[in-house]
Design a protein that fits this description.
1244 residues, mainly alpha, Arf Nucleotide-binding Site Opener, domain 2, two-stranded antiparallel sheet, 54 helices, 69% helix, 0% strand, flat, disordered N terminus, transport
């Protein structure tokens, strides 16, 4: 309650001034407002706070919005009181009720239409929320309220910054229109009240009622303030309050309230008195016309609106930028004010301070809100982007290596929000690479980082992998640049190592098995997700290019260029050779573009080869660089290349520079001259010089280097030493001091006095100032000359020692690591990156990207799939990764790699076991379904192109069919195709390996027909197919579990052959070739043949015969006819006759089609009959079957009428029958067919 008389007077005068009823109040405000200063005491701040609350409350309850001069006063008061309360927060003197009220009013002031809280006042409001939230004196409710108010404040600020000019103008006009309507109604109401009351009340009575209303309002506000502290507090007469407190008129307990004014009243009489008083108070002042003011506001010229909107838009954006900059600064330093030295290095251990942690946590959370809430206006504003690059990235760098989980978690979330935002990531691709290479990988490789830290970093990798464009930018900017490291390749290797279980641990071995499993799982998910996003991006780009190609083709056709028959013929030929697949068309469209990416990566590979040569023998490495054009045969150019090239062995570099050869010396001189030592002390200059290489062990080499260094240093700093000799001696002395102080082999360390004594009289006969020598000594003592890799190695070795088992020691080592990380990364972030341009065509780099990563992925998936201890979830991710990898290999024509991935899937189907007695595992079923999915997606017109890897899918299909027969207890094929000739089976020695099964008879189709029945074809397929004994119950049960337990497998297998019509023209040829090869392997076992593939060949030929153009079909038939002719000449007569009958079925369907003149498709189709008929290995029964088929063709009206070029083959078969030798039955049968033709169908 406001008990001070001065405070009461000030509050009342402010109220009177706001109401605008008292000229004295206006004068008081005009006189005092310019003299108000920020408060210095708690009591005065509380008084002013109470005044502000009263003003704000009146503004809401009376008018609902500020108008005219009243609003201008409130704005002035708000700004002043905001500054006062901010300082009060710094003093920690506000109570909880005042704090909550002020926070609410702050939010109302900032979010109000046409708010005047901008610039410094807005920043003070933000900092005020921080002070309330982090103050230990604030209650939990106040802290939560401060965070909520700050969130809403930022949301309002960002949303205003995103408003377009049209939105601001529309909102302003709407507000003016609303004000006009409200003011008009208010004016009408007021004029009525004046006319009804002015005639009855005198001026004296009116003033009296105004004073009474003011007094009653003040009493009511005081009652409300007291009730918040003590709801049962009595009034001045000792009466207890009722439901609604005390009556606003008579101060008695109030059981009612007025519906119109919401004021508490005790009776109807008091309600009428209160309403009459309000009518008098609402009476307008002389000369004041709210309606006229509103009309004037709504009739502003449009040009004035545009100017106001332009300024307001700039003001809103400037507010958002300043708030964002403030939040970044707070998150970097953990304080509300930045230190005076902007480059001040923050001690990482200071992040454990509770106040700083709380401040950083809230600031990072608010930064995340701004980034997620901002739209295109802010994110495309150069100042906003520069703020992210210059300030936010340093804040993330500092906080993401914090040992506090809450801090590094939020920092990494902010990084992900920026790095995955399409509008922002294109501007910070270089910074992303620095974080990945220098921060995230080092945390993962560190044995001192905690499980939570590693887990959060892996989550960042997972988020980055969800969008292939982010990885693509890294690959282009780093892996394809000869001046940068292989960031993308290194990241993939790190993820693969973790997924395989190669997690860096400390000597304590603190990672629990379940924690290690989580890290491995997350790394695996990241790799698989990346391959999936690459597939998605590749498909999307291919679809866009395909649609663009169709549009271009349509345009050319409309110009009359698409109707050239020559062009059409060429297109058909390309499609016939396999160019019809989406993959091939994509690559053809991008051939020149892709070559640039491949050339860039190849250039990088050449540089890496030169680095390896240099590390073995520097002279040959330099010769290689010159020969390959990386530098000229010039010392300056060589020095420039060696200084900037990554991966060079620092020891080899130092030895090369120290050689006493003219060219080597010139290179060393050029390297020294490339440094700028202006204004640097000797230790700093020497430290910078020695960062490039490791000093050689020979003193003569060191002497030559120090001599040139001293000359260059004195040339750029002539006023420090008398001559270069002094700098030379002192430099050499500093190197010796460094060895003496920091070598574990030196027992007696050099003291400062010894150092001074050793360097007496070296400055042209005089002594170097003692203070300067002391400075140099302390610099070397506190920080030795050391290469970064040496320090990293020391920390790594230290983390493996037994002392690292203690948490305090691990924390100390991690702090040292973070210092190194921050220092190196800060330097790299400060460099201005080269503008390499964005990736215009992702297809240009996706292929080379996958060439870099496929080996790591294959090794990871192979190791995990080979383990029997992995969970089903891990196997699911592995199978998914194999599927994505097969698709990428197919897209970019990586045949060898595709074969590896498909073979791995086929291996883990488990179908190659013989006998098949063990139940199929979940891994086996998943691999079976994955292969079927790949095969059917291609036959559905998808993007997968299996090529010669079809052999694995077809072998699996054959095995599934065999399991189906076992499950149904049906008879095997050998029962029906037993060899009657009794041909002996060759002796088997050992069952072949699984790889032998996979690559059984890739070229068996080339074997000659006479040897098919007797030779042993293949090294594994035949053994696998051989089932001489009756299947065991275990085999039958295992087969049922696969076939009946997963009923979708058999239909999906059959669908492969039915949907072969959807394969591209080039792919169907490969499909048929592989099916023929597998069929040869199945039929090679003389006493146990399988005809599954032979049946499927007939099926495939049947469905493709009518769906392929004749040119494509002729190529398919060349493969099929050769295989059928080979099988028809088998020693197994049943197989031979089965093959001939299959040919008959296909020929009968083909001959039902009409043939155009001058074509010879029928001859090609019937040629297998000629080959079998003319073979000496064909039996009499086979020849008779062929002649009966020819006779049926001749006898059929349909085939005879369509026969054109096929007559040549028919008569050739008959000729072969007539010349068959001593086989009288065949000769007579052929003669009968000729006689029938002559007598029945030809006129003589």
């Amino acid at each position: 309650m406001l008990v001070s008389s001065n405070a009461a007077e000030r509050s009342l005068r402010m109220l009177i001034c706001v109401w605008g009823k008292c000229d004295e109040g206006k004068a008081y405000l005009a006189e005092k407002s310019s003299q108000w200063e920020p408060v210095s005491t708690h009591e005065e701040a509380r008084i002013l706070l109470g005044s502000w609350v009263v003003v704000s409350t009146w503004d809401k309850t009376t008018t609902g919005e500020a108008k005219g001069s009243h609003y201008r006063f409130i704005v002035s008061a708000e700004e002043w009181i905001l500054r006062s309360f901010y300082e009060l927060c710094l003093l920690g003197g506000s109570d909880d009720e005042q704090t909550l009220t002020t926070l609410r009013e702050l939010l109302a002031a900032v979010t109000a239409p046409k708010s005047s809280v901008h610039g410094d006042d807005l920043i003070k409001g933000v900092k005020m929320c921080f002070e309330v939230h982090r103050s230990p004196k604030s209650s939990e409710l106040a802290q939560r309220t401060a965070q909520a108010v700050l969130t809403q404040l930022l949301h309002a600020t960002v949303q205003r910054a995103e408003m377009s000019r049209a939105d601001i103008l529309a909102e302003q006009r709407k507000a003016n229109t609303s004000t006009s309507g409200n003011a008009g109604g208010e004016a009408s109401r007021r004029s009525n009240s004046v006319s009804s009351s002015g005639e009855e009340l005198s001026e004296e009575e009116r003033n009296k009622q105004q004073d009474e209303w003011i007094e009653s309002q003040v009493d009511q506000w005081l009652d409300e303030a007291v009730a918040k502290v003590d709801p049962s507090a009595p009034n001045e007469r000792g009466e207890a309050p009722k439901k609604f407190g005390f009556c606003i008129v008579c101060r008695k307990p109030a059981p009612h309230y007025c519906l119109e004014t919401k004021d508490p009243v005790c009776s109807k009489t008091c309600e009428e008195i209160n309403l009459q008083r309000r009518k008098v108070v609402d009476e307008p002042l002389p000369g004041e016309s709210p309606a006229a003011d509103a009309d004037a506001a709504s009739e502003l010229p449009e040009g004035d609106d545009e100017v106001d909107v332009e300024k307001r838009s700039e003001l809103y954006q400037e507010d958002a930028l300043r708030v964002f900059s403030t939040l970044c600064t707070i998150s970097l330093y953990g304080t509300l004010e930045a230190p005076e030295d902007a480059d001040q290095q923050v001690d990482p251990s200071s992040t454990t301070d509770p106040l700083a942690v709380k401040t950083k946590r809230l600031s990072l959370d608010m930064v995340l809100c701004v980034i997620n809430g901002s739209g295109s206006v802010l994110k495309r504003k150069p100042a906003f982007i520069e703020e992210i690059k210059s300030r936010l990235m340093f804040s993330i760098l500092r906080n993401c290596v914090s040992p506090v989980p809450k801090i590094f978690t939020l920092a990494l979330q902010v990084f992900v929000a920026v790095a995955t935002n399409p509008d922002l990531k294109m501007h910070i691709s270089t910074q992303i690479g620095v974080f990945v290479e220098e921060v995230f990988k080092r945390i993962l490789d560190s044995g001192n980082s905690s499980f939570q830290h590693k887990h959060r970093v892996l989550q960042v990798f997972y988020k980055l992998c969800t969008d292939a464009t982010t990885s693509l930018d890294l690959f282009k900017e780093y892996d394809c640049s000869v001046t940068e490291g292989n960031v993308f390749e290194g990241s993939i290797a790190t993820l693969a190592k973790i997924a395989q279980g190669g997690i860096q641990k400390s000597g304590a071995g603190d990672l629990q098995p379940e924690q290690e499993a989580k890290l491995r799982m997350l790394a695996l998910e990241s790799l698989v997700t990346l391959t999936g996003s690459m597939v998605e991006l590749s498909n999307r780009q291919a679809a866009e290019q395909s649609s663009g190609g169709r549009e271009k083709s349509t345009e050319e056709s409309s110009d009359g260029k698409g109707n050239d028959p020559t062009t059409a013929s060429c297109s058909a030929g390309e499609s016939d050779s396999g160019g019809g697949s989406p993959r091939n068309s994509t690559i053809t469209a991008n051939g020149s573009a892709r070559s640039s990416a491949i050339v860039a990566k190849a250039r990088k590979s050449e540089l890496e080869a030169g680095v390896r040569k240099f590390n073995v023998k520097p002279k040959r490495g330099v010769e290689y660089f010159v020969a390959r054009g990386f530098c000229e045969n010039d010392p300056t150019d060589v020095a420039r290349l060696l200084k900037r090239t990554r991966g060079l062995d620092k020891t080899a570099f130092g030895d090369y520079l120290g050689e006493d050869e003219p060219f080597n010396l010139q290179v060393m001189y050029s390297l020294v001259d490339s440094h700028d030592f202006h204004g640097m002390d000797l230790v700093s200059a020497l430290r910078e010089f020695l960062e490039d290489f490791r000093l050689p062990g020979e003193s003569q080499k060191i002497d030559r280097m120090m001599e040139k260094f001293a000359e260059h240093y004195c040339k750029q700093n002539p006023d420090i030493y008398a001559n270069a000799d002094c700098a030379y001696i002192l430099s050499f002395s500093l190197i010796m001091l460094n060895t003496d102080l920091h070598s574990s082999q030196v027992k007696n360390k050099m003291s400062l006095d010894d150092f001074k004594r050793n360097n007496r009289g070296i400055n042209d006969g005089a002594d170097v100032p003692s203070a300067h020598l002391e400075f140099l000594y302390n610099e070397i003592k506190n920080k030795p000359f050391s290469l970064d890799e040496d320090e990293d190695l020391k920390l790594k070795l230290a983390s493996q020692q037994r002392s690292a088992m203690q948490p305090s020691r691990r924390f100390e080592l991690f702090i040292k690591e973070t210092e190194s990380i921050v220092e190196k990364s800060r330097e790299m972030l400060s460099r201005k990156p080269e503008d390499m341009g964005g990736v215009q065509d992702p297809q240009e780099y996706l292929g080379p990207m996958f060439e870099v990563m496929w080996g790591s992925i294959l090794g990871t998936l192979s190791q995990l799939m080979n383990s029997e201890e992995e969970s089903v979830e891990v196997v699911e991710w592995c199978v998914e990764g194999l599927k994505h990898s097969v698709k990428l290999c197919a897209r970019f024509e990586m045949d060898t790699e595709r074969e590896c991935f498909v073979a791995m899937l086929a291996k883990y189907t488990g179908l190659m076991r013989s006998p098949f007695e063990a139940p199929a595992s979940a891994k086996n079923i998943m691999c079976i379904k994955a292969l079927l999915s790949l095969a059917n997606s291609e036959t559905d017109g998808g993007d997968v192109v299996l090529g010669h890897s079809w052999k694995h899918v077809l072998l699996m299909a054959s095995q599934i069919d065999r399991l189906a027969l076992l499950a149904s207890r049906a008879k095997s094929d050998y029962v029906y195709f037993a060899n009657p000739s009794g041909a002996s089976e060759p002796q088997r020695h050992a069952r072949p390996s699984m790889m032998g099964v996979m690559f059984a008879t890739h070229s068996s189709s080339s074997s000659t027909a006479p040897h098919l029945a007797t030779q042993w074809v293949g090294t594994g397929v035949s053994v696998m197919m051989k089932q001489p004994e009756e299947p065991s119950e275990a085999e039958i049960n295992a087969s049922k579990e696969v076939v009946e337990g997963h009923p979708e497998i058999v239909p999906a297998t059959d669908a492969i052959f039915q949907r072969s019509t959807k394969l591209s023209n080039g792919e169907i040829i490969v499909f048929v070739e592989e099916l023929c090869n597998l069929s040869s392997a199945e039929l090679a076992v003389v006493d146990n043949p399988r005809v599954f593939c032979l049946q499927k060949l007939v099926e495939v030929a049947d469905v493709n015969m009518s769906n392929r153009i004749r040119l494509v079909w002729s190529r398919i038939w060349r493969v099929l006819s050769a295989h059928f002719a080979q099988v028809a000449q088998s020693k197994n007569q049943q197989l031979s006759m089965y093959a001939i009958d299959s040919l008959r079925q296909l020929a009968l369907k083909f001959l039902q089609k009409d043939e155009l003149s001058n074509y010879h498709f029928q001859v090609e189709f019937l040629r297998p009959f000629e080959a079998v008929m003319g073979s000496s290995e064909s039996s009499r029964e086979v020849k008779e079957l062929i002649l009966s088929i020819m006779e049926s063709f001749v006898a059929s009206d349909v085939t005879r009428s369509n026969m054109k070029s096929g007559w040549k083959s028919v008569f050739h078969v008959l000729l072969l029958a007539a010349t068959s030798g001593g086989d009288k039955t065949v000769v007579e049968m052929g003669m009968r067919i000729v006689t029938t033709l002559r007598e029945s169908y030809f006129d003589t």
